[in-house]
Amino acid sequence: MKLWEPTGCCFCFSLRTGSLILCSFILIGCALNLYISWNSLNNNDKLVKVIGEYCSREVPDDSDCKMRMKKLVTGLLTTQMIMSVIKMICSSLMIFGITKNMTNLMIPMMVLLLIQLVFALVTGLSFIIMLATFVSGAAAFGALLFIVVVLYFETYFLLVLRAYYMQVKRAAGLMHDVLQEAEATVGIPENKVLLKLKN
Fold first, then answer.
1. 28-83, pLDDT tens digit by residue?
2. Per-residue pLDDT tens over the stretch 92-114
3. 8: pLDDT strictly greater than 60
4. How far apart are CA 20 and CA 91, in angstroms?
5. pTM for this prediction
């Protein structure tokens, strides 16, 4: 079955423009996330204070709570920073690939979004089951609605990027066929035709 391909982005942009806007938003968002996470790690006094307040309120009898929570928060912030850097690199490659019509540079971003989509689906379902089991059905239903919305937009963004990728691939294949036909008919090698077109 053929995968659905949108013809535009958000009903008002072309696939190329929409892909550039989406990747730019991802790049800016990751840069802000990296800045916030870095500041949180460097602001050690505030981090220790917040963790101390949480441990004193939730588990006052646990003497190791502060140490464990600090390691957990530090690990989560570090992981978030690493993921932000990876997404910034992939977004930059995607933007450069779009501007230069280089499809190979578009692949990392699409693979990353696909992995993120699968991860969000698995963790989201686990979170919903946990809420339904230990909290309430209403909380699980609210989380379900939120996760469905997030998955919808992530899937749509991935489909937009893939549609533009396929559009560029088809255009490149059509150009190749035209050049091969010209070479067979006129006898001009394909590389010379491309050189003349660039000049």
1. 999 998 998 888 888 767 767 777 777 777 666 666 777 777 787 788 888 889 99
2. 999 999 999 888 999 999 999 99
3. yes
4. 9
5. 0.74
Q: Which residues make beta-bridge pairs with 13? A: 9
The rounded distance, in Å, linking the Cα atoms of 36 and 154 is 23
> Long-range contact list for 108-115, CB < 8 A, 24+ apart?
109/23, 109/161, 110/158, 110/161, 110/162, 110/165, 112/86, 112/87, 113/154, 113/157, 113/158, 113/161, 114/158
66 is written with which tokens?
Answer: 């502060």
Residue 170 backbone phi and psi in degrees, to 5: -65, -40
State how far the Cα of 1 lies from the Cα of 58, in Å rounded to an integer. Answer: 52
pLDDT in tens, 111-161: 999 998 998 888 888 888 887 887 778 888 888 899 899 889 889 999 999
Q: How far is CA 14 from the centre of its chain?
A: 20
Identity of the residue numbered 27: L
Angle at alpha carbon of residue 116, lines to 115 and 118, rounded to 5°: 65
Locate 26 and state its tokens: 């991802």
* C-alpha separations of 17 from 12, 88, 117, 150, 151 in Å: 10, 19, 23, 22, 22
Q: Which residue bears the tokens 């013809």?
A: 7
